[in-house]
Design brief:
This protein is mainly alpha-helical. Among the domains are: 12-45; 47-110, no CATH class. It contains four helices and five strands. The N and C termini lie far apart (93 Å). The protein is elongated, with a radius of gyration of 28 Å. A hairpin with a 7-residue loop joins β4 and β5. InterPro entries: AlpA (IPR010260), Prophage_regulatory_activator (IPR052931).
């Protein structure tokens, strides 16, 4: 039984499409498994709301830097940094908070930092000789 070239071409195209779909599905499963693992590790509080001081602690920045990263027009503005959500319902709406899931996703997008030996080339303070102003200019270790 001979297969027509046109039918064979369609079958090849269909097989490529199925292969790409399976690959995309595998990526989605990987993302979902990471999310489930993260939810299990954090006790299900993945989408809780954090206030500014807690966000600053989690990302390792000061509270003012967190505010500056969210302020459009500021030199430290980061369009990728999650924006806070209004929590208050009054006229001023001063209370704001960030969802932990969005902060966590932002942290995951940060590049890996590689520290080289030049970062800490200075000798330790105890091994440096220092000139004491109180000992008549003598060197002490």
């Amino acid at each position: 039984m001979a297969i027509d070239n046109d039918v064979a071409g369609k079958l090849v195209g269909l097989m490529e499409f199925v292969g790409k779909s399976i690959e995309a599905l595998g990526q989605q499963v990987e993302i979902l498994s990471k999310t489930v693992a993260r939810l299990a590790a954090h006790g299900g509080d993945e989408d809780r709301v954090m206030r500014e001081s807690e966000v600053a602690h989690k990302v390792g920045l000061s509270a003012s830097t967190v505010r500056n990263r969210c302020t459009v027009g500021h030199p430290s503005f980061d369009p990728d940094f999650p924006q806070p959500q209004c929590l208050g319902s009054g006229k001023t709406r001063n209370a704001v908070g960030w969802r932990w899931s969005r902060i966590r996703d932002w942290i995951d997008t940060r590049p890996t930092a590689y520290l080289n030996r030049q970062v800490n080339k200075r000798p330790h303070a105890s091994s440096r000789a220092q000139k004491s102003p109180y000992s008549g200019g003598e060197w002490r270790a």
